[in-house]
Design goal:
By secondary structure, this protein is α+β, with helices and mostly antiparallel strands. It is built from 25 helices and 24 strands. The longest helix is centred in the C-terminal third of the chain and has 35 residues. The protein is elongated and about 110 Å long. About 50% of the residues are buried. It is a multi-pass membrane protein. This is Carbonate dehydratase. Belongs to the cation transport ATPase (P-type) (TC 3.A.3) family. Type IB subfamily.
């Protein structure tokens, strides 16, 4: 399939079967078909084949390939080969075409026998370079269908055939022949002209346009490939005797026990049999804080083990895991939404037959009116050449190329014109919290020291020293903060280090027992030969107030106790990104209502929402919940964008009218999104909206010109007032005007130049 007309033909043919409905995805080349039990898959495939295309059922997923079936490497390899072939055809066509275009369009450079050199260079372009158009045109002819490929093929064939006739039989091959421009075709003189520039210019322009479009569509399969890459390749399975053996993850069965070491991903959904650890679920559930798990608690496949050793019993494998469910949701959502129908392609179903009919009618009219046969053929060729859809084919991809290049400079990566069109009309944006509005990692936000105690720096130094032995993310946050706050002071060594799940850590630092633990935790029993710590006293008023403020802000709080005395309160949390408030405010000013949806706790979610002024909040959302929320909002008539960064956001991103991913997020989220904020700057979302509005205005102007040009030029060619040579020049000029208009986007800025000048002037004053 090459355009939306192909998609429509396949869908309509399948829908003619009783009880069958189909949604065809042009970008991925897949169709989702609902059919009665009595209609077999072979019958559905046969309908597609009779329509003029090829089809086959997707291969069943293999265990080793992960939840997405075919591995990402295999899929990417096939796509790379196809793009390499397209690029090679385009480059060879360009190298052969440029000399022909220059010599044909500049009479002063035409030397003796120049026309024969151009003919030799044109032949491989007209046959091999334009072969994809010829092949698809012939396929359409066999099925009584005409597409834009038909018009391109006929334009190339007519131009080349007429040029060959003129060279060999019409006198245009004589040495010293020069070809000047003629606005009007002269009766009997058309055979002395060759139209080789049209024979090479048409395939070159359309090949370039479609290559740019294919590049823009390439990212559609990235979400599924990245989800497949999250699947664990092999796993350490425990046997009945307690030994371990590594087996491919696809061989893991429900009920088997497997080992997850620190830094490894959990192979599949299961229940912890033994061990304690903190799991990083931010990419799977959106939970910003690591989750402590122990015996009897459930774990999710794809989560990263942050610290201890776990033994897990598998409760779901293969297609039943949460990661596989997310993959299926992304696949279905993409199939339902990726129906980007170009205006030019949609018009092709009417435009192409009309042009073909008009060319035949023009030929018959002039012959019937007694005109010279050469003049009649010249007028018919002019109609085909002037109507070749170069400008139509370039209107969208050139604007897209310029816009995406400029957007990349501004930190905005746009997936295609459908994304721009949708972004322009979005009125609701569903915002993820972790990694989107916040940094996505734990950070010390406040350290409050007890009055009259050791002091803030001393307490922080001791806490950082004892946490050096911990692998817990909270501990790493404390150590990192201590090293930044005390750059000139080394953290001392710790002895007798102990870590207790759900309690905290303790150790001896410079002869003192230091404990970093959760509020309300009792002191640990003393080690042998060490006196017990005194009973926990009440917190001083200043520390109690700091503890209450931190909990009100939904921060995680730990106490620093030295020899049983609380010396400091440390608040740790996932802090807002710089510019989050300004970004949300700008979106609201653009008429886009923000909605917060997160897998985090309600207290954390509402605290962030209050800080940003967001009124609509949904907390504790699973990936399925987020996707359902997007569906509900769309059912209410809203045009919904989703802004997220994790695997947990991938399904919602794909189901939304528009998906926006943070460039610092997961590959799955980026692949499922239509727009990516490359620099991880949420403020670029407002820039994306403004860029979309400017780009769509440019595309509309290009299409208006392209259609207007055809509306004016085709009638002129039909009445014999526009020769093929002039038609070729007009066709090329229309393409150049479209490209030039699109290139203006390369200098676009989010702030108008007049405003920028005023701003610079005020700063200077």
């Amino acid at each position: 399939m090459t355009c939306a007309a192909c998609v429509n033909r396949v869908e309509k043919k399948l829908a003619k079967l009783d009880g069958v409905s189909a949604t065809v995805n042009l970008a991925t080349g897949r169709a989702r078909v609902r059919h009665p039990v009595g209609i077999t898959t072979d019958e559905l495939v046969a309908v597609v084949v009779r329509t003029g295309y090829t089809a086959e059922p997707p291969p069943p997923p293999e265990p080793e390939a992960g939840p997405a079936g075919r591995t990402g490497e295999e899929a990417a390899g096939g796509d790379d080969e196809a793009r390499a072939a397209e690029r090679q055809r385009l480059l060879v066509t360009a190298l052969l075409s440029l000399p022909v275009l220059v010599l044909s369009m500049v009479p002063a450079w035409q030397f003796d026998n120049w026309q024969w050199l151009c003919f030799v260079l044109t032949a491989p372009v007209a046959v091999w370079g334009a072969w994809p158009f010829h092949r698809r045109a012939l396929a359409g002819l066999r099925h009584a269908a005409a597409t834009m490929d038909t018009l391109v093929s006929l334009g190339v064939a007519a131009s080349f055939s007429w040029s060959a006739y003129a060279l060999f039989l019409g006198g245009a091959g004589e040495p010293g022949m020069r070809m000047a421009f003629e606005v009007l075709p002269s009766a009997g003189g058309g055979a002395h002209h060759v139209y080789l520039e049209a024979a090479v210019g048409v395939p070159l322009s359309v090949l370039a346009g479609r290559f740019l479009e294919s590049r823009a569509r390439h990212g559609t399969g990235a979400a599924l490939r990245s989800l497949a890459s999250l699947a664990v390749k092999d796993v350490a399975v425990r046997d009945a005797g307690g030994g371990e053996r590594r087996v491919p993850a696809g061989q893991l069965r429900v009920g088997q026990e497997f080992v997850v070491r620190p830094g490894e991903r959990v192979a599949t959904d299961g229940v912890v049999v033994s061990g304690n650890s903190a799991l990083d679920l931010s990419l799977v559930t959106g939970e910003s804080e690591p989750v402590e798990v122990g015996a009897g608690q459930e774990v999710v496949g794809g989560a990263v083990n942050a610290s201890g050793l776990l033994v897990v019993r598998a409760t779901a494998v293969g297609a039943d895991t949460q990661l596989a469910r997310i993959t299926r949701m992304v696949t279905e959502a993409q199939a339902g939404k990726a129906r980007a129908q170009r205006l030019a392609d949609a018009a092709a179903g009417v435009f192409v037959p009309v042009v073909l009919t008009l060319a035949v009618t023009v030929l018959g009219f002039w012959l019937g009116a007694g005109a010279d046969p050469e003049g009649a053929v010249t007028a018919a060729v002019a109609v085909l050449v002037v109507a070749c859809p170069c400008a139509l084919g370039l209107a969208t991809p050139t604007a897209l190329l310029a816009a995406t290049g400029r957007g990349a400079q501004l930190g905005v990566l746009v997936g295609g014109p459908r994304a721009l069109e949708t972004l322009r009309h979005v009125d609701t944006v569903v915002l993820d919290k972790t990694g989107t509005l916040t940094t996505g990692h734990m950070t010390v936000t406040e350290v409050t020291a007890a009055p009259g105690g050791l002091g803030r720096e001393a307490a922080l130094r001791l806490a950082g020293a004892v946490e050096r032995g911990s692998e817990h993310p909270l501990g790493r946050a404390v150590v990192s903060y201590a090293r930044e706050a005390l750059p000139e002071r080394e953290l001392p060594e710790v002895t007798d280090f102990r870590a207790t799940a759900g309690w905290g850590v303790s150790g001896v630092v410079e002869g003192r027992r230091v404990e970093v633990c959760s509020p309300g935790a009792d002191p640990l029993p003393a080690s042998a030969g060490e006196s017990s710590s005194p009973a926990r006293p009440g917190l001083p008023e200043e520390l109690a107030r700091a503890l209450a403020d931190a909990e009100a802000a939904a921060r995680t709080v730990v106490l620093v106790r030295v020899d049983g005395v609380v010396e400091a309160v440390v608040a740790v949390g996932d802090v807002l990104r710089a510019g989050s408030y300004r970004a949300v405010d700008q979106l609201r000013r653009l008429g886009v209502e923000p909605v917060l949806a997160t897998g985090d706790r309600p207290a954390v979610a509402h605290a962030v929402a209050a800080e940003l002024g967001i009124g609509e909040v949904y907390a504790g959302c699973s990936p399925e919940d987020k996707a359902e929320l997007v569906g509900r909002l769309r059912d209410e008539g809203r045009r919904v964008a989703v802004l997220g960064d994790g695997v947990n956001d991938a399904a919602a991103l794909a189901r939304a009218d528009l998906g926006i991913a943070m460039g610092c997020g997961s590959d799955a989220a980026i692949g499922a999104a239509d727009v990516t904020l490359a620099a991880g700057d949420i403020g670029a979302a407002a820039v994306a909206v403004r860029l979309a509005r400017r780009t769509l205005a440019t595309i509309r102007a290009n299409l208006v010109w392209a259609f207007g040009y055809n509306a004016l030029a085709v009638p002129l060619a039909a009445v014999g007032r526009l020769g093929p040579m002039t038609a070729a020049v007009a066709m090329s000029a229309s393409s150049l005007l479209v490209v030039a208009n699109s290139l203006r986007l390369r200098t676009w800025g989010p702030v108008p130049r007049s405003a920028a000048r005023r701003r610079r002037g005020s700063f200077g004053a």
